[in-house]
Design goal:
Number of domains: 2
Number of helices: 14
Shape: rod-shaped
Strand order of the largest sheet: 2-1-3-4-5
Structural class: alpha/beta
Distance between the termini: 96 Å
Largest sheet: 5 strands, parallel
Number of strands: 5
Order of helices and strands: EHEHEHEHEHHHHHHHHHH
CATH class of the largest domain: Mainly Alpha
CATH topology of the largest domain: Hypothetical protein af1432
CATH superfamily of the largest domain: Hypothetical protein af1432
CATH architecture of the largest domain: Orthogonal Bundle
Helix content: 55-70%
Strand content: 5-15%
Length: 356
């Protein structure tokens, strides 16, 4: 079976040998480009050639020097060496340099010559087929990757939209609950603002601020399932009522628990009534068990409770509340958090000439 026709580059400084070999190649139907030296090969070679035939001994650049340059350029075109000297030294050197085969001159057996050329062409065909396959595979992988990235982007957008919708719904429910009680109206909004002010003062990252904002928004969401008559009761609460109220951090954490994107917020909500000395609730955690965001929420929630009106006591002013925080710094509240909050609140008041 005849092989496919090929484009062949032939280099030989012997014009007679060059003409003879070229004529034989053309007789077999191939297209031949002839040059007299390896330098000419380097100047004109490109990926359109299927086979390169190099005379070993040429005046300016011999075959071995030429193949070294071709190897460096990674054309992956089979190189056959044309020589009238068949020494073992040449054979070893040619093999080491990646030569594909030898052709002897003068050509004595056309059938053998033709077989060697056809095998070299088949080798080139295989190389090009593999190269095209890899390129096709790379393009397919790239297209699939882009498709997957687009799918992931859409899923992420949907996920964010779902998260935002969930947060907005929960916020609306909590705001509706607070608005039923004159004394708690606006508490969540103020606590959130205090928390973010303190978070910025403590140089929290944007990611941390998002978690802190959500935890602040939902820290009292557990009160949604607590009898509001207990919260709105005139005067102080009795022991039974306090036991009921003290359940709201756990209830709130349980409400948030199914929301996988709010794991950290769940921890903060559950423990925003803990104390540094371990005397808080619901789990009696010590200060070292609480993260920075929880310590922030403990401070700002207590500050707003102290400065807000209650039906059973008068509210404190800013200085009184900050003094109360300092008084219990290290026992109920984290000392560093109290210090930063005190400075942040006073700086805010001085800067904007408002009262908190």
């Amino acid at each position: 079976m005849e092989g496919r026709k090929a484009k062949i580059l032939l280099a030989d400084d012997d014009i007679t040998a060059r003409s003879t070999v070229s004529t034989v190649l053309e007789m077999f139907g191939h297209t031949v480009k002839t040059v007299a030296d390896g330098k000419d090969v380097i100047d004109i070679v490109d990926n359109s050639y299927d086979v390169i035939i190099l005379d070993i001994n040429m005046v300016d650049m011999g075959g071995f020097e030429t193949i070294k340059v071709l190897n460096a350029r990674q054309y992956n075109i089979p190189v056959l060496f044309l020589t009238g000297i068949g020494s073992m030294e040449y054979v070893v050197q040619a093999i080491n340099l990646g030569g594909y085969d030898f052709l002897t001159k003068p050509i004595e057996d056309l059938d053998i010559f033709n077989v060697k050329i056809r095998r070299a062409i088949e080798k080139r065909t295989f190389i090009l087929r593999e190269k095209n396959y890899k390129k096709s595979l790379e393009l397919e992988v790239r297209d699939k990757t882009q498709e997957l990235e687009e799918t992931n982007r859409l899923l992420l957008t949907y996920s964010h939209s779902l998260e935002n919708a969930t947060v907005q719904l929960m916020s609306s429910l909590q705001n509706a609950m607070e608005e039923k009680d004159y004394y708690t109206a606006g508490h969540t909004m103020r606590v959130t603002e205090y928390a973010l002010m303190l978070g910025l003062a403590m140089n929290l990252s944007e990611k941390e601020l998002v978690v802190l904002r959500r935890a602040s928004q939902f820290h009292d969401i557990g009160k949604l399932v607590i009898d509001l008559s207990c919260i709105q009761k005139p005067g102080k609460l009795n022991d039974e009522e306090w036991t009921l109220i003290r359940k709201h951090p756990v209830v709130g954490a349980n409400i948030i628990q199914p929301l996988g994107f709010m794991d950290r917020e769940q921890f903060i909500v559950r423990h925003h009534h803990e104390r540094m000395d371990g005397k808080g609730y619901p789990d009696g955690l010590m200060g070292e068990d609480l993260d920075q965001l929880t310590k922030i929420l403990i401070v700002v929630d207590s500050y707003d409770a102290m400065t807000s009106r209650r039906n059973y006591r008068r509210n404190m002013n800013m200085d009184e509340a900050l003094d109360e925080l300092q008084l219990h710094s290290g026992t109920q509240f984290d000392g560093e958090t109290v210090d930063v909050f005190s400075h942040a609140v006073r700086d805010f008041v001085l800067t904007y000439n408002v009262s908190l």
